[in-house]
Amino acid sequence: MGSFSPTASSRRGSSRAHWTVLAFAAVLGLACLIGAAESAVAQGVVRSVHSDWQVRCDTPPGAQGEQCALMQSVTAEDRANMPLTVIVLKTADQKARLMRVVAPMGVLLPAGLGLKIDQVDEGRAGFVRCLPNGCIAEVMMDDNLIKQLRGGQTATFIIFQTPEEGIGFPLSLKGFGEGFDKLP
Q: In angstroms, rounded to a whole number, what is the distance separating the alpha carbons of residues 61 and 67?
């Protein structure tokens, strides 16, 4: 689990901090990651629609209650067979906000996932796991990222199939703020 990091040097940080984040990801994220990735396939029941975003809810296996997520799926403009799904959710303890992006298989993992909001580069996040339906990048959403998503028009997620070939997935942010506010 990480964040969209603007530079390679800031991504490296201190070794101790890096491993602390990884340990936190292992404890908090693994169980949720599996459940959310599986529900990305099933996608749950649509509870509300907010322009281009949907709030979908499902009860993952073994969970005590229902989990809801704000979702949008798109395909690359020039490659209809390459879907990308963005899942935004709050953890069960309501202490963290996560963004999971399920990218198509065949993505170049070391290059990570790029993000631009209204053409402003927000950096890259690493992929944490690949499942049969795609590879998952996961970031903790801070207040600044949420503010940018609320105020933006378009988020473009960028994956790489080769080091030279970035593929952009433009995603409308219309309805993001309203949908985010509806998450339990």
A: 11
Q: Is the pLDDT of residue 1 over 60?
A: no
Dihedral sign (CA 18, 148, 76, 33): positive
Rounded-to-integer distance, Cα 42 and Cα 36, Å:
10
φ, ψ for residue 106, nearest 5 deg: 95, 0
Q: What distance in Å separates the CA atoms of residue 156 and residue 162, rounded to the nearest whole number? A: 18
CATH 2.60.40.1880 fits 8-182, yes or no: yes
Query: Cβ contacts of residue 100 below 8 Å, gap of 6+?
Result: 33, 36, 37, 40, 86, 87, 88, 89, 136, 137, 138
Backbone conformation region of residue 158, classed left if phi is above 0, alpha if psi is from -120 to 50, else beta: beta
Give the side-chain half-sphere CA count within 13 A for 174. Answer: 4
pLDDT in tens, 58-67: 988 888 888 9
155-164 core/surface letters (b: 16 or more CB in 10 A; e: else): bbbbbbeeee
Backbone angles phi, psi at 64, to 5 degrees: -80, -30
